[in-house]
Specification:
The protein is mainly α and about 110 residues long. It has a domain of about 35 residues. It has 2 helices and no strands.
């Protein structure tokens, strides 16, 4: 109980300093926002860059959402099970290669 009391005392004592630091930070941000936008070779201005930032963040959040979702199971095929075969790098990855030039019996 005593420990908690001392912690609260120190937190209340530091509160005005934290408010001053917050006010100084907000003033610095306001000063930066007031500066003119620098010229660019492509002619883009502040609205285009801000729109790009919003769209980029949206794409990142959608990507995270898609990564979090489980993938659906592939549909089951009826009939005989598929034979597992080894894919060779010479012809199986090059389907345009004529059968006569293939090294395996794929």
């Amino acid at each position: 109980m005593l420990k908690r009391s001392f912690a609260e005392f120190h937190a209340q004592r530091a509160a005005p300093e934290a408010r001053e630091a917050l006010a100084a930070g907000e003033a610095a941000l306001a000063a930066l926002r007031a500066w003119p936008w620098p010229a660019s070779r492509r002619g883009t201005g502040r609205p285009e860059v801000e729109r790009y930032v919003v769209l980029t963040r949206r794409v990142e959040s959608l990507g995270a959402l898609l990564q979090a979702r489980p993938r659906p199971a592939p549909p089951q095929r009826r009939g005989a099970p598929l034979r597992a075969r080894r894919a060779c790098s010479r012809c199986c990855l090059r389907p345009w290669l004529p059968r006569e030039l293939r090294a395996c019996a794929c």
